[in-house]
Amino acid sequence: MTRRQLWLRFIVHLDLPLLLGIALLLLTSLLVLYSADNASLEQPLKQMLNIMVAFTCMWLVANLPLHYLMRTAVPIYTLGIALLIGVALFGEISHGARRWLNLGVVTLQPSELMKIGVPLMMAWYFEKHEATLTLKNYFIAALLLLMPVALIARQPDLGTAILISASGFYVLFLAGLSWRVMGGLFVAALASAPVLWSMLHDYQRHRILMLFDSSQDALGKGYHTIQATIAVGSGGLFGKGYLKGTQTHLDFLPERTTDFIFAVYSEEFGLIGSLILLSLYFFVIARGFVITANASTYFTRLMAGSITLTFATYAFVNMGMVSGILPVVGVPLPLVSYGGTSMLTLMLGFGMLMSIETHKKLIKT
Amino acid sequence: MNKHVELKNHQREIYYFRLRLVVSIGFVLLLLAILLARFAYLQVVRHDHYQTLAENNRISVVPIVPNRGLILDRNGVVLAHNYSGYTLEITPNRTADLEATINELSTLVEITPKDRKRFRKLLAERRNFETLMIRSRLSDEEVARFAAQQYRFPGVEIKARLFRDYPYGEKTAHLIGYVGRINQTDVAQLEENDLAANYRGSDYIGKTGLEQSYESELHGATGVEQVEVDSGGRAVRRLSRAPPVSGNTLVLSIDAKLQEIAFQSFGNYRGALVAIDPNNGEVLAFVSKPGYDPSLFIDGIDTQSWDELNNSPDTPLNNRALRGQYPPGSTIKPFMALAGLHYGERSPDFTIGDPGYFTLPGNTHQYRDWKKGGHGSVDLFKSIVVSCDTYYYGLATDLGIDRISSYLPRFGFGKKTGIDLEGETSGLLPSQEWKKKRYGQKWYAGDTVSVGIGQGYNLVTPMQLALATATLANNGIGYKPHLVRDVRSAHIDENHAVSNEPLFNLEIKPAHFDLVRRAMVAVTQPGGTAVQAAAGAPYHIAGKTGTAQVIGMKQGEKYIESQVQERHRDHAWFIAFAPAEQPRIALVVLAENGGHGGSTAAPIARKVLDYYLLGKVPQPLPDAAGKEDEEHD
């Protein structure tokens, strides 16, 4: 085999447009991390390591034929549920929430696994019953979704629970759940809002209330939102310039390499920069939709659509939270925030998208 | 059939799926549009607002507290200054266990129970994110010891600060006063006067004495430094700086040495002394005894010391010279004599036969002279020399209260002298209207009789009597008494000397003055009531003794000093000016419960006069627990 053939072999299952979008976002991540870390290379270098690990996993998944992918659905989901129950029983408490499971060697956050596991399982379930779909199947699929969501919500980790609900809902939606049922669910959700409200923890209520008047608690919970909003707003049209954000470099922005990294970006690059970033996201999302539209099987359509929509949701929730229109829930900015776990989950998703795109011809033939 | 249905389903599914995908794309576009709208709102519409907030975040305006002005005596001797020292300070909300921290600190640095009490008081008054002082004036060794262990004490730090210091301590306490920490009342007052901005960062404000009265001169103008700070409030770099302007230096007319000698001359007596240069109203010495240690108040006095001072029977916090109100006793007589001459009720050669008492016509009540059996034949000159009460009972009766109450204010009785110290009291010069208002009673002839010898309703402050004496010494030309001669600006070479324009001229006939003055000189000559105190003086002293009754004596009862409790003994007065021919100094001495003016108050005056006129320092520095003798006034 020549070197060229080897190279072609290597990239054959990578989707180049998607890869381009991802690469640009990752580049942005490194650039902004350098600034957010006060012109230190420490976090960008660590992030590079995260990227390499995640990239390798993505490559492996992209090369995985689809029937293998489908076969992983039930084991992953079952393992995830088991781990979540394990967390509920033996989990470690950190910051008042029981989210981590210490397995002696590694500590795991099983809710991360379920970000992939839940849509995978649901898509698998719909594929199984593709021929004879009735309302009952949607109901069972919804149960598959609600079980882990309930376990995660009571950890409590409302942010992840909502995001997994969203990814599961997208599967239901794309699987063709009737508008009437969705309308009914929507009304039911509104009606049950007061009950849900009473079930929330104080800090969660506080975060939601903070949205309406963040100035009430300027040095407490509202501090994050206020400082982030100031950073974004003071960025103006063109931004303060790379490495020149005062909110960032004078330490006013909290968690600026992780959840609030968008504030750093927006302060330094302004509205123009924000527009560019939104375009990049849209590019990746649009490519995701193209892959979804071209997907050959029911399972892959549902899976690709859910991954794409979930990615869009992550981006929206994070930027909405940083700019003060959504409550502060711990959602990182996809592909840009520092962190290995979320990077890995996202890249596994993109691996699946690539696999879906690049293996479809094989199935057709 | 089955296959057909499935195929149909499949196509329909694809169609429905594509439809849903379009909806999804619409949904994503909606989300992105929401974000874009929000960004545009924040970054374009509200940009100015957030820009300001970011700048406010970033830029901290740090006040630079000006150095407080110095207070110097007329010769440049320092009476109040600043020195830099180290304090140990705690920020309570950065300290986990306050009590344990303080206990631990006390192993490194001495922390007395008083320090702890004061700290607890501060803690109760202040918000706990402020830094509060636990110890001041650390020694170099203590600073070094703490610095080595600082890492163990989060929220505890050493700060270099300027402290106010009063080298003369209690001797000038009532004159200089003290500064103290700015409290709620001060803040309210500063805000009312629109001065709050200039006090940003200032910890201290003048509370009493000159420190209070000249606060606006002493404080100076606060400077401003704009610094870029990070979220922890740490200054990152300086952006701009407007330097502070130090407070002005006060140069007093006080002679520190004279003040010291005057203070010490009192020995164990309580009392007051005010010495004035009659030629310009400059106050040369201003003593109120006992004093107190003004440094106790600077950083908040601890309760124990406060109770000691506040509950002491000696009332050390009372500024006797400025606020103490006493019956003037016989020191009023020279002024009464001038009133008698002025209204023509007495001529210099008008003579009475003194039987030792006075009675009002148609009344048997005897107003006794201090000397049993009387002084025999007494004219105006002799009435002052021997301090004949009977003469003045008659004079006051003949003048009547209306003329007395309109004449004496010319010398400043019954009203504030206007000295440049706050809190002056105005004494009391009774009149018919006053009694009507105060007691709802009419004025009786008997009331006038005792006013003639400075008893009864009238009260004077030592300050008032000093002004009256100075005016007398200066032939009726009075100056407003003042302590500050000169206000010096530290930066621009600018002095505003206090003007010495005469305040009033009584335009009293020289012959009247001459007579009274000669009589007052005779008071300190053989045959006078203050002869011992003036013995051997190479200059002439014009003086007048006085006693102010503390308790009333019943008719027919004799005042026997040895039988009266110390605190119920009469107050001793002495007023004087010297040299009598060309007075350079006029003074008043009050010795509380001192008994006789001639034997206790006059010797104190003599020491002050000797130093001021001759430069003679009493050796050893006086103990004025003067010998008590039978002499009376």
Please give a structural write-up.
The complex is a heterodimer of chains A (365) and B (633). Chain A is mostly helical. Chain A has one domain (16-364). Chain A is built from 14 helices and three strands. Chain A has helices at residues 3-11, 16-36, 42-62, 66-90, 110-128, 135-153, 158-174, 179-199, 202-212, 222-235, 246-249, 261-294, 298-322, 340-364, and strands at residues 92-94, 97-102, 107-108. In chain A, strands 1-2-3 form a three-stranded antiparallel beta sheet, covered by helices on one side. In chain A, helix 5 runs parallel beside helix 14 (340-364). Chain A is globular, with a radius of gyration of 21 Å. Chain B is α+β, with helices and mostly antiparallel strands and 633 residues long. Chain B has three domains: 2-45; 61-252, Penicillin-binding protein 2a (Domain 2) (Alpha-Beta Complex); 256-307 and 321-489 and 497-614, 3-Layer(aba) Sandwich (Beta-lactamase). Chain B contains 22 helices and 23 strands. In chain B, strands 2, 3, 4, 5, 10, 18 and 19 form a seven-stranded mixed beta sheet that branches. Chain B has a five-stranded antiparallel beta sheet with strand order 12-11-23-22-21, sandwiched between helices. Chain B is elongated, with a radius of gyration of 36 Å. The termini of chain B are far apart. The model of chain B is unreliable at 1-5 and 622-632 (pLDDT under 50). The A-B interface holds A 131, 170, 173-174, 176, 227, 229-237, 246-247, 250-252, 266, 270-271, 274-275, 278, 281-282, 285-286, 289, 292-293, 298, 301, 305, 308-309, 312-313, 316, 319-320, 323-325 and B 6, 9, 13, 16-18, 20-21, 24-25, 27-28, 31-32, 34-36, 38-40, 42-44, 46-47, 49-51, 53-55, 57-58, 228-232, 236.
